[in-house]
Amino acid sequence: MRQARKSDTYTMARERMVEEQLARRGITDPRVLIAMRLVPRHLFVDKGLWGRAYGDHPLPIGHGQTISQPYMVALMTQAMEPKQEHRVLEIGTGSGYQAALLARLVKNVFTIERHGALTRRAREVIDKLGIDNIAIRIGDGTIGWSTYAPFDGIVVTAGSPDVPQPLLDQLSDEGGRLVIPVGGHGFQQLKVITREGNSFSTREEVGCTFVPLVGKHGWADEGR
Ligand code: SAM
Known about the structure:
It is built from 6 helices and 9 strands; from the N terminus they run ααββαβαβαββαβββ. It is an alpha/beta fold and 224 residues long. The chain has a domain at 57-208: Vaccinia Virus protein VP39 (Rossmann fold, 3-Layer(aba) Sandwich). The strands form 2 sheets. A 7-stranded mixed sheet has the order 5-4-3-6-7-8-9, with helices on one face. Helix 1 (2-22) runs antiparallel to helix 2 and helix 2 (30-38) crosses helix 4 (97-105).
């Protein structure tokens, strides 16, 4: 009984999050809004943070990393224009939350995380939820995942000094979209790059602040 009441609390918190933080701020893709209503974000953070899981902010997930603000997760997901038949790559698994969201929206999700401990925890939560269309790998996501390329969408959830060339190469040449924060350590611009054949067009979205993308085609270190 107490368990049921608790889960009602989180369902209501998600409803409020979608109405107040997403729908009112320009998240309009109905599939994204439905997925944000359904994925239990609190399960992707430590129990001590469950009460803050649906707030309008990022939260710590250990190893100096964060689960992004719900609005930013929804905006990046919407910008990728996910379709049911798509195969997408996420760089920066972190808690596994955005991968779980994407798994509801596309056919296959491939996700890479450089911290082994985060990867293992994300996999545990994803398995517990019975999600079976996510492949997770420990490694440097700046080189992409060529075995499964090309991807209809790539979302990078860490801030990069430049756009990594391997990610452009691994985008589908039929409208593949790369969503990536690009800029300095403290502030980036969210870019949406669309590929048609060998031509790439770029649209700039909002300013944002992400933890650094550390790897061969990103930052050399975390800059702390
Ligand atoms: N998408 C995550 C979620 O839903 O919880 C949030 C990710 S957090 C903002 C960014 C993540 O990118 C961190 O976990 C960090 O370790 C990871 N990261 C940074 N550089 C990376 C790289 N080169 N390859 C893979 N992961 C990387």
